Amino acid sequence: xEMEEKILFGVDxxxxxxxxxxxxxxxxxxxxxxxxxLFYGAPDPHIPSLYKMFxxxxxxxxxxxKVLNLQEHRVLxxxxxxxxxxxxxxxxxxxxxEGKCHDPADALLKLAAAGDxxxxxLARSSTSRLERMLLGSVTYRLVHCADEKAIWVIDxxxxxxxxxxxxxxxAVGRRLLEHVVRYFAHLRESRFTFFHVVPPLPPQYWDNARxxxxxxxxxxxxxxxxxxxxxxDKVREIADEGKERLVKAGxxxxxxxxxxxxxxxxxxxxxxAELAEGHYGILVMGRRxxxxxxxxxxxxxxxxxxxxxxxxxxxxxx
Length: 318
What we know:
- The protein is α/β, with parallel strands linked by helices.
- It has 2 domains: 1-155, HUPs (Rossmann fold, 3-Layer(aba) Sandwich), CATH 3.40.50; 158-318, HUPs (Rossmann fold, 3-Layer(aba) Sandwich), CATH 3.40.50.
- The chain contains 10 helices and 10 strands.
- The two termini are 26 Å apart.
């Protein structure tokens, strides 16, 4: 019996939100036990201010309230129709609305905690990069402020259902593995690649001020090769376990691989290049940077990928 998964998906009136819901439904329609709750936080129009500004009669103010309530229902109905239209079973869909919602990101976090949803999904923000940097985006705030929740940011339409797992350290790699098996093991025809970019060489392996002899250079090259191997071996064990568990779940063995490379254009650009060149539609990676303190601890790598990744679902796992 499969474990039940509860996903909370934030929507609004935008077409991109409905497209993201459709993409999520198509991805999860065959994942038995998966339930999706659609949430819309209707903005607070501050009716008393509108009354004073436009000198509406009490009847007109009440009519305005009715229109706003109707809009809230329509947003959720359209999102629900898009989800069911993707093939996702209607009995596994729940809709929730909240009127006078001052902070949709906070409302999503509270609802996720109350409903035991481990994952929050939403469309990629359509706001400008400057607005995102100024916390003007629900998406941007969620990926920074969510604590124990995984965040899915969907930029429709996603390229495919093939999965690229950007492995980092062993600790976060273990959590990424669990997330992949838990949510995507039902994609039996998809490709799964556990991808590791070996970071730049540490200072002790940089060229010295003096010219090395042939013997010294050979020894240095052997040391570097050993360091790269040790770095890759730290995550290879996780990739091997991931392959074993995915194959056991029904994924074809030849569709699961482990790829490692030294950094070429930069950690983020190398991941983006692999994502695009391999036509992957799902990127799973770590989100937090444990070295930072305070509420905003999104790693620089995750932050750059969130801003520059396109046509994919970026799964940020804490």
